[in-house]
Design brief:
With 222 residues, the chain is of the alpha/beta class. Helix content is 27%, strand content 19%. Mean pLDDT is 88; it is low at 211-222.
Length: 222
């Protein structure tokens, strides 16, 4: 499985000095799911007059790093997460990942704080979200090409990063939500004073069954 993760995913986490303890707890929790691709940490560099401006800047830097990734997909994480026990198994077995060609577009959230969706396909473990109403960027899966497109069009859409990104991405792809959520928001204060929220469908013990988990394409090394 370790080789499969390395072939398919690069992973990145944005954080700041104020969240050192929270970040370390999240990294330990991720490692316990047997996720072997240790995230590259992109830290708030302190540039910006306000906390929210620094968050915007850090997200942009994460997106730029993701655009350079050599892997098929990237996993982008915030630093205050709870992972399901079977997180790695569930993500690597997600059928949606099979349909993305090299260099294609994919934008998906593994976290859903009860957002509206356009269509739901439980058998394929996803819902299609309405990009106008979607927010929350706790755990995102996208392709490097998608990250590059987000970076190139970053200033053409207004809103916080978690609102801006799906609105940009929706120009070239559907916006997917994994069903059920594979992560939850840890019960810690936000860094910018936002309202606390949780995933409405997170189950720490949920595991994809054999009927919904299929082998990854040749070359992914699983």
């Amino acid at each position: 499985m370790s080789q499969g993760i390395a072939n398919l995913f690069s992973s990145f986490m944005l954080s700041c000095e104020d969240r050192n303890a929270t970040r370390e707890a999240t990294l330990r929790a991720l490692a316990q799911t047997h996720w072997s691709a240790e995230p590259e940490i992109v830290m708030d560099d302190g540039i910006g007059e306000s906390r929210i401006q620094r968050i915007h800047r850090t997200w942009r830097r994460v997106i730029q790093r993701a655009a350079e990734a050599p892997t098929r997909c990237v996993l982008l994480l915030e630093d205050d997460l709870v992972f399901g026990r079977w997180f790695t198994h569930n993500l690597l077995s997600w059928p949606l990942l099979h349909n993305v060609p090299p260099g294609g577009a994919l934008y998906a959230s593994l976290y859903n704080p009860s957002q509206p969706f356009i269509v739901q396909r439980p058998g394929e473990r996803y819902a299609v979200a309405h990009p106008r109403f979607l927010w929350g960027a706790q755990a995102l899966v996208m392709t490097p090409a998608m990250a590059s497109y987000l970076d190139a069009n970053w200033d053409r859409v207004q809103g916080n990063p978690d609102q801006r990104m799906p609105r940009i991405a929706s120009r070239v792809t559907a916006i997917y939500l994994h069903v059920p959520s594979l992560v939850d928001h840890a019960p810690v204060p936000t860094t910018w004073g936002g309202v606390a929220h949780r995933a409405h469908d997170f189950d720490a013990e949920w595991r994809a069954d054999a009927a919904s988990a299929v082998a990854l394409p040749e070359g992914f090394g699983l």
